[in-house]
Each structure stands twice: as structure tokens, then as C-alpha cells.
């Protein structure tokens, strides 16, 4: 059974930083692309960042480019999202996700690719 568990969310002031973690069990993370998505109240879930299974390529939403960094530690079966220079508009529940097919390299920025989802972690940025 695949489980993704996010942690690291919290309340931070504008300009602050947080690092989100997504620990995976039931799948070997090194074989899978991973994505981070977020959903703010009243909004649809949106893409934030993704990393290919090899780790060679990363992708970011324009709104977070230059501020957020996605990375993976295959030895710990964990994916991270380092978030710097946080803004109030970054406030949302953040989800990590994995596809059900390994070695995927196409469509890693699209929600439809992802099959497994974590429960989410709340990030609140105060102004």
C-alpha cells in the first residue's frame, strides 16, 4: 500500500522560509517522478513543482520560480520542497503526489498524471 505523508507546514511571516517533506512508503521513490501541488481556499488545486525520477529535471509554476526548490533524497525515500521568500498568496494546503507508473517523464506538471496523494500540510503566510 502506497502512502505519502507530508510534514513541515506551519505559520510563517512574509519573506520567511519553510521546508516541506514528503515521506513515501510502499514505493521506491527513486523510480518515480514526484510533484507538489497546492490548494488555497476557494481555489482549485494547482501545480507547484515537480521532479523527474532521475532528478535531472525540475519544473516550477511561474508563481514560485526562483523562490521554491524541489529535491529528493532517494536514500530516505523523501521529497522536499524548500520555500523561500514566502508571500501571503502562497498560503494553501500543500500536497505531494506520485504517479502509479515508474520512470514517467511526460506530463509531470499535470495533475492528471498523479495517482497517489498525501493528506496535505497547511502553509500559512502572514502579511
Write up this protein:
- The chain has strands at 3-7, 10-13, 18-25, 34-39, 46-51, 58-60, 68-73, 78-83, 92-98, 116-117, 121-126.
- The mean pLDDT is 96.
- A hairpin with a 4-residue loop joins strand 7 and strand 8 (78-83).
- Strands 2, 4, 5, 6, 9, 10 and 11 form a seven-stranded mixed sheet that branches. It has a four-stranded antiparallel sheet with strand order 1-3-8-7, with no helix packed on it.
- It has 127 residues and is mostly beta strands.
- 0% of the residues lie in helices and 46% in strands.
- It is globular, with a radius of gyration of 13 Å.
Report the C-alpha radius of gyration, rounded.
13 Å
Order of helices and strands: EEEEEEEEEEE
General shape: globular
Name the average pLDDT. 96
Structural class: mainly beta
Strand residue content: over 45%
What is the number of strand segments? 11
Termini distance? 40 Å
Query: How can the largest sheet be summarized?
Result: 7 strands, mixed
- Secondary structure tally, helices: 0
Q: What topology emerges from the helices and strands here?
A:
Elements: E1 3-7, E2 10-13, E3 18-25, E4 34-39, E5 46-51, E6 58-60, E7 68-73, E8 78-83, E9 92-98, E10 116-117, E11 121-126
Features:
single chain; about 130 residues; mainly beta; seven-stranded mixed sheet; four-stranded antiparallel sheet; about 0% helix; about 45% strand; globular
How would you summarize what this structure contains?
This protein has 127 residues and is mostly beta strands. The chain is 0% helix and 46% strand.
Amino acid at each position: 500500500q502506497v502512502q505519502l505523508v507530508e510534514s513541515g507546514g506551519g505559520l510563517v511571516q512574509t519573506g520567511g522560509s519553510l521546508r516541506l517533506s514528503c515521506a513515501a512508503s510502499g514505493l521506491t521513490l527513486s523510480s518515480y517522478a514526484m510533484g507538489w501541488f497546492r490548494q488555497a481556499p476557494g481555489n482549485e488545486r494547482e501545480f507547484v513543482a515537480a521532479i523527474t525520477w532521475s532528478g535531472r529535471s525540475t519544473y516550477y509554476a511561474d508563481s514560485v520560480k526562483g523562490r521554491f526548490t524541489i529535491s529528493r533524497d532517494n536514500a530516505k525515500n523523501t521529497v522536499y520542497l524548500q520555500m523561500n521568500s514566502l508571500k501571503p498568496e502562497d498560503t494553501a494546503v500543500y500536497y505531494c503526489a506520485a504517479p502509479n507508473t515508474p520512470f514517467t517523464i511526460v506530463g509531470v506538471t499535470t495533475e492528471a498524471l498523479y495517482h497517489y496523494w498525501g493528506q496535505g500540510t497547511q502553509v500559512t503566510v502572514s502579511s
